[in-house]
Each structure stands twice: as C-alpha cells, then as structure tokens.
Amino acid sequence: MDATSAKATTDKIRGLHAGLRAAVESAEVSEESIREWKQTTAQLFKEFNGFRKAASAADERSRAERAMLREEMREELVSREAVGARTAERYRAFAEQGSSSAGALFDRAARTAGAIEMSIDDISRHALSVNQGTVLLHEQMNQDGA
Fold it and tell me: Which of 74, 85, 71 is nearest to 131 (CA)?
C-alpha cells in the first residue's frame, strides 16, 4: 500500500471512467472494450482488497501497540502507587516511634519525589501524578499536630 501503487490504481480508475464516458457518449461499444473493462474492474477490485487488507492489518497492529503501551503505563502507575504506599507506611511507623526528625525526613523525601514527578511529567505529558497520597498523609499529620 505504497504511494506508487495507489497512484497506479487511481490512474486505472480514471482510465476506466474515461472509457465508460466515451462509451456512453457514443452509441456503439465493442465486445473487446467490454472485456477490457471487466478485466480492469477485476484487477481494481483485487488491488482495492489488497489496500483494504493492508489498512486493516495496520489498524490492528496500531490497536495492539496501543493496548501494550496502555498496559505498560498501567503497570508503571500501579508500581508507583505501591512504592508510595510502602513509603507512607514506613513513614507512619517511623513517626509513631516518636522521632523528632521524621517531619524533616519526610519533607526532604516529598521534595525529592516531587522533583522526580516533575521530571517524568516533562518527559511525558500523559504521565499522571499518582504520588499524591503521601503528600496528603503528611499534610493531615501536620494539621493534626498543629
């Protein structure tokens, strides 16, 4: 389904159309012309089916590639959420031990995570920020402690 074969098919269609127009304008059509038109029409039909099959295959391939990418993105997002949840759990356990440096550690970790998220967003505008749960947990703890 390249440009040259598409142009050749278009030229055949135009030639067939011109021949049919000439036949309509004149009263006589030879048997040879009718056979030629039938052969040309059959050949055009085969070429058209080839184009249709190629387009269908390209469409199917595109759908499969999008599905694979969608699945990879979903796995990445799930993985990021799991890391965020584990980090939040570790921070909660650390904060329950009564450490005074827990807030400073979390603030530094939150800034680092934010910088990483911004870098990922710069690479792909389709990436979703999924690490918001940890920040919300930290804000709730700061509000409860204040």
Answer: 85
The number of C-alpha atoms within 13 Å of 72 and in the hemisphere containing its C-beta is 7
Amino acid letter at 32? Answer: E
- Token pair, residue 4, equals 């040259």
pLDDT tens-place string over residues 10-23? 788 888 877 777 77
What are phi and psi for residue 38, nearest 5 degrees? -65, -45
Q: Where are the domains of the chain?
A: 3-145
Task: Find the DSSP H helices in the chain.
Answer: 3-25, 31-96, 102-123, 132-145
Note whether 138 and 106 are within 8 A (CB).
yes
Cα-based angle 34, 35, 41 (whole degrees, multiple of 5): 90
pTM value?
0.45
6: closest CA among 54, 58, 62? 54
Report which DSSP code applies to 27.
Answer: S
